[in-house]
Amino acid sequence: MLDDDNFYDDAVDTLETFIGCGKKQKNNWETNIQVEDMNMDEKQYNSDELHSASNSYEEGTTRKYKEFNIDTDMDNPQFDVGMKFPSKKVLKQAIQIYGALRSYECKVVKNDKFRLSAKCKEGCKWRLYASLMQGENTYQIKSYTPKHSCSKGFHNKNITSTFLSQRYMSRIKDDPKIKKTTLQSEVHRELGYEVSTDQCYKAKRKAQTLIEGTYAQQYEKLWEYCEEIRQTNNGSSMLMKVDPPHFQRLYVCLDACKKGFIAGCRPLIGVDACHLKGTFQGQLLVAVGIDANDNIYPIAYAVAELESKDSWCWFLQLLIEDLGQVSEYGWTFISDQQKGLDKAFELVVPKASHRWCVRHLYGNFKEKFKGQALKDQLWSAAMSSNEVDFNCEMEKLRGLDEEAYGWLKNRDPNMWARHRFSPRTKCDMLLNNLCECFNSWILAARDKPILTMLEMIRCKIMRRLQVKRDLISKCEGPICPKIQGKLEKNKTLSHRFRPMYCGNGLFQVGDTLVDQHSVNLWTRTCSCRRWELNGIPCMHAVSTIFHNRQEAEQFVDKCYTPEAYLRAYSPVIQPVKSMK
C-alpha cells in the first residue's frame, strides 16, 4: 500500500463499476564502515522478535545484527551496517522517511534484482548500499556512510502525498473532517516543510482509502457483511438486490430496532431519503420512529441507486414485512412528498394514514404565494386541532388571498391538517423532523465507502440504545423528562381558566365565551382535541384535574412512561467482527 504516487493513482483512483546470489560486483561507493569492522551494539533491546539463537561473539558463532522492525522503527528510521530488512520495499520506504524527517533528499539510485544503493543530493557524502542475503528474501546493509555534507532545505522530493498520507494517517483517522489547510499547517510545524493544499487533499484522500479500503473493494465484501449481521444479530433483515454484476440496493433492519420499536414506540413512522456523497453516490432511504421521550428511534435504512416509485415500493414492502401489517398495528407515515413516495404508499400500504411534512407543503405554497401573512395563516390552519378552529383560520386565509385559499383547499386536509389526524398515534407532529434529525445525525457517514458507512450507522445505533438504557435508570417520576416539560407548560397556562363541574366527569372550562371548552376526565378528552391527539392533558384538562385535587401526571397516556421507554431500548445490538 506504500508505493509511489503514480502507482497509487493507477491502482486506486481509477473509477470502477459498482460492483544473495550471482557474481559479486565491485562497488565504487565511498565507505567508511564495513560489515567486518562493525562492533556489536552493546545496548540490549526489549523485543518479542525472533533473533539468532547465539549471542556469543566467540569464534565459530554467527554475529547477531539488528533486524528492522516495521511497527517500531519506521516512525524514525535509523541505519547501521549489518541491519536487516524484511524486503527491498521496506528498505526503500525507510530511506524515504529517513530523508524526509531530516530534511535531506535521500533517494535510491541503483535498484536491481539483488542490490540497492542510495545517496543524498549531488556532492553529499551520505551513502547506503544493501544487497539480498543468499537463500533469503532479506536485504542487509553492507556499507553505510551516515554523515551528510549537504545543507538542509524547506522543500523535499520525498514529501509526497503518499508519504504524508502515511505520516498523518492516525491524525486523519482521529479527525476525518480535518481541513487541508489545517493539515498543511501541521506539516510545516512538525516537519518544517512547505506543502501545497493540493498535496494535503490527496494525502487525506489516500489515508482514508488506506483506512477504509477502496469503494469497489467494500462492495465485494457486502455478502460477507450481510451474513455476519445475520449470524450475530439473529432476526435482522439484511436483503441485497443486484443486477449482475452491478449492486443496486441493500436493506437493513436490525432485530433490536425492530423489536424495540414495536414494543415501546408509538405507531408513527417518518420516511425520507438523503444523498450519499461517496464515489458511487446513490440514496439512503430511512424509516424513523419516535420514542416515549419524543426522541428519534431508528427503525430501518437502505442504500438504493436512486429515489423512485420502484425503490420506495421495494423499501416499504420490506419494512411492512418486518414490522407487521397496517390492519394490526395502525401505522401512520409522515413524509416530505419525495419522488414516487405518494404512489408507493398507495400501492404498498393503501390503508395506512399518511401525513405530509407541513414545511415542505409550505415550500410548494410559497412558490406562488409569498409573504409573511400568508405563511402565518397557512401554519395557523395546519396547527388547528379541531374543525371549528380550522375552518375559522381557512376563512382568514381566504380574506387575505382567494387564490391561496383555493390552492390549499385543494390539498387533502387528512395529509396536513392536525384536526384530521388519528388519535391512535398519540403524536400530533406536523413536521418530519424525525428523519431530518436522523440524516443530520449520520452526516459524517454519508461520504464513506459503503461498508464503512453501514458500520458507522450500525455502531451509532448500537451505542445509542445502550446510552438510552442507562439514562432511563436515572429518570424519576411517572413520565419521561421531555413529556414532563410539556406538561409543566400546560400547568402554567391552566391557571387562567375556571373549570365548572357538570357531573359524570364533565367540566366546562374557559375564561371567556370565545375560549371555552368541554373536558371529560373519564374519557380523557377535551373539545380542543389536543389531549386526545397527543395523550398529554391540555391546559383546559389540567385546570379540571387541579380542580379535583389530582395529579396531572396520572392522566398522561402510558406511551410516555419510563416503562415504555425501557421496552424500546432493552433489545441489544450485538457486536460484529471486522471485515478483513
TrEMBL record:
Pfam families: DBD_Tnp_Mut, MULE, SWIM. One of its GO terms (molecular function) is DNA binding. Keywords: DNA recombination, DNA-binding, Metal-binding, Transposition, Zinc, Zinc-finger. SMART domains: ZnF_PMZ. GO terms for biological process: DNA transposition. This is PREDICTED: transposon. It comes from Prunus dulcis (Almond). Residues 517-549 form the SWIM-type domain.
